[in-house]
Design a protein that fits this description.
Blueprint (H helix, E strand, L loop, with lengths): L10 H7 L8 H13 L5 E6 L14 E7 L9 E3 L14 E6 L10 H11 E12 L18 H9 L2 E11 L12 H6 L7 H5 E10 L2
Parallel strand pairs: 1-2, 1-4, 2-3, 4-5
Antiparallel strand pairs: 5-7, 6-7
């Protein structure tokens, strides 16, 4: 399995790549379900790191104020900032957030992964949650795309998170016999509500994992 390397894609790459994510994916819809449940009944703020076209904004509840960072913003807005957050600090002015989320981001953070975790911790409110996804490179039909520069087992990622956060939960975002998000033939309705690992089954068939983290006690 590859190690983390200093090989990062530029804005020119992401300005094209991000157009593929205008329609909310299964992963994003499941994330919104989790965030909406945790934030129910409270006025909250959320920072979407690597937000792409900000598709998450349309899925979260009105009580959650949305903000996004990305290296390639398609349509500028007051709640979005174009930042090369690999090289620059993850921040949004002086704001702190109740949620920080990073979907499909840390496969691209190379050797700067832990620094980015620390930056996220610094902008997370005391009772806030950091929610991230990470590819299951242990999938029995795994594909390691050349664009990934941070490839590691789920257990190693969890250990790295635990050095900075308290990992409250770690579970598959979805399962599929191919390493892709579920479609209509992959019982997405059930998978949307499945928030736990299945022994033996998940390590081989989980497409990716969610981590729900908070400040260490």
């Amino acid at each position: 399995m590859k190690e983390a390397v200093e090989n990062y894609r530029s804005r020119d790459y992401w300005i094209v790549e991000n157009t593929q994510y205008a329609d909310p994916s299964f992963r994003l819809r499941k994330l919104a379900r989790i965030v909406n449940e945790i934030g129910r009944g409270r006025t909250c703020s959320l920072l979407d790191v690597g937000c792409g076209p900000a598709a998450l904004r349309q899925l979260i509840s009105p009580n959650i104020s949305y903000f996004g960072l990305d290296i390639a913003i398609q349509q500028p807005a007051s709640y979005l900032r174009e930042v090369d957050f690999v090289r620059d600090e993850i921040s949004f002015g002086e704001r702190r957030f109740d949620f920080v989320v990073g979907m499909g981001v840390f496969e691209y953070m190379g050797q700067r992964q832990n620094r980015k975790f620390e930056e996220i911790r610094n902008i997370l409110n005391k009772d806030g949650k950091f929610v991230m996804s990470y590819i299951n490179f242990g999938h029995f039909r795994r594909k390691v795309w050349p664009n990934y520069n941070n490839v590691q087992p789920i257990a190693k990622m969890k250990h790295s998170l635990e050095e900075i956060f308290q990992v409250e939960r770690c579970f598959p975002a979805s399962h599929h016999w191919r390493q892709k998000q579920p479609g209509k033939n992959s019982i997405p309705g059930i998978q949307m509500r499945l928030n736990f690992s299945i022994p033996l089954f998940s390590p081989m068939l989980a497409v990716e994992y969610f981590f729900i983290c908070s400040h260490r006690k």
